[in-house]
Design brief:
Number of domains: 2
Low-confidence stretches: none
Number of helices: 7
Radius of gyration: 21 Å
Bound molecules: fe (ii) ion
CATH topology of the largest domain: Purple Acid Phosphatase, chain A, domain 2
CATH class of the largest domain: Alpha Beta
Number of strands: 23
Shape: globular
CATH superfamily of the largest domain: Metallo-dependent phosphatases
Strand content: 35-45%
Mean pLDDT: 94
Length: 388
């Protein structure tokens, strides 16, 4: 019998394309149908008509178990429905319709959520998946345009079952309609499954993308600070290192109004597992006007004051947020806050970030849907930060 064992899930949305992935229980062909729909303006609650007009179809005859189909020539900021189907000589299977939304245009507002650590870790057992299901269902309520996962989404990246148990299973509904980006945590351990299941730009462990007025850069901090040298980088964060050179080139090339960098190990957290060596990247973030750094690894929430040159600087500082999301390890926090700590709390949580051309509002929300931190950045029309 042929069944869908993962997904369908969405990857790499742009204004006119999106990639749809799923996994089947055996080798089979891949087929995607994109359907147009219309909004119903009935005067009552909002809804869409049943999707009926086929906008595009894409198929691959060759068999695979992990299916990856890129659909192009779509319109920006548009909601479509999609169906998938796989067939082989014995059987066929299908799913949908589910909805998707292409990326917004420059100048348009958008929202995204952030979480991590769905893989659990010794002190909190995620094997029954309840916290993860709570976090995914809360994130769904906010209807984000996409989501970031900041690593350790599985317990052991080399275990095939982990990817379903900790991530694709609890996130099933959310991931059918929310494209996501992920970075490598130490628990993924650079396993080949990360490269198989995700359709990020080559080399996949680091990449960048634009969405609306924001530029996002994903880094692989486990490559800078690998298992053998942890918590030291042993001189890797310098010119001549491929990933470091990519970061410099990428920051130089972007003119986006908002710049967000995410990677697993936290340079600033008033708790265990801080990886101070990563502060070697801070001068670059400061030089190129990065607004927000998002990390994980320490399983708490923490937001820093704006930091520049190792000091609080409200005018020019970079804000570091640890979104060690789907878990809570209060005992990992130090007894008292550090100089750089603005807000900190060890509860299972996610971030909801709403961005316009001139504002970025970050909310930290717990697994029951309660807001426990909020922060807003404003910029003038020239892109200079305004105090709020
Ligand atoms: Fe970690």
């Amino acid at each position: 019998m042929l069944t869908i064992v993962k997904g369908p899930y969405l990857q790499w949305p742009t204004g006119n394309s999106i990639t749809i992935m799923w996994e089947t229980s055996g080798p089979a062909s891949s087929y995607v149908e994109i359907l147009l729909t219309e909004r119903i303006h009935s005067g009552y609650h909002g809804n869409y008509k049943k999707p009926e007009h086929v906008r595009a179809t894409v198929s691959k005859e060759e068999y695979s178990t992990i299916h990856q189909i890129k659909v192009e020539q779509l319109e920006p900021s548009t909601v479509y429905f999609y169906k998938i189907r796989s067939e082989n000589e014995q059987d066929e299977t299908e799913a949908g319709p589910h909805f998707l939304k292409t990326a917004v245009r420059e100048g348009e507002s958008f929202s995204f959520t952030v979480t991590s650590e769905t893989g659990g870790y010794s002190g909190f057992d995620q094997s029954n998946g309840q916290i993860n299901r709570n976090i995914f269902s809360q994130m769904q309520k906010y209807r984000p345009d996409f989501s970031l996962f900041v690593g350790d989404i599985v317990n052991d990246g080399h275990q095939y079952e982990d990817w379903e148990k900790y991530f694709f299973g609890p996130g099933k509904e959310f991931l059918t309609n929310t494209p996501f980006y992920s970075c490598l945590g130490n628990h993924e351990d650079n396993a080949s499954f990360y490269y198989d299941f995700f359709a990020f730009d080559f080399p996949k462990n680091y990449y960048s993308f634009d969405y609306g007025d924001a530029h996002f850069i994903c880094l692989d901090s486990t490559q800078f600070v690998n298992r053998e040298t942890y918590p030291n980088s042993s001189g890797k964060m310098a010119a001549g290192n491929d990933q470091y050179d990519f970061l410099v080139r990428d920051l130089q090339a972007t003119s986006a109004k908002w710049k967000i960098v995410f990677f697993h190990y936290p340079p600033y957290v008033s708790g265990g597992y801080q990886v101070e060596d990563l502060r070697q990247l801070s001068p670059l973030f400061e030089q190129y006007g990065v607004d927000l750094i998002i990390n994980s690894h320490t399983i708490v929430y923490e937001r820093s004051h704006p930091i520049h040159n190792g000091k609080i600087d409200l005018d020019n500082g970079v804000i570091y947020v640890v979104a060690g999301g789907a878990g809570a390890m209060p005992e990992w926090l130090l007894p008292k806050r550090e100089w750089h700590t603005a807000q900190s709390l060890a509860v299972p949580h996610f971030l909801q970030v709403v961005t316009t051309a001139n504002s970025m509002e970050l909310q930290a929300i717990d697994e029951q849907g309660r807001l426990f931190d909020k922060f807003r950045m404003l910029k003038d029309s020239l892109g200079k930060r305004i105090h709020v």
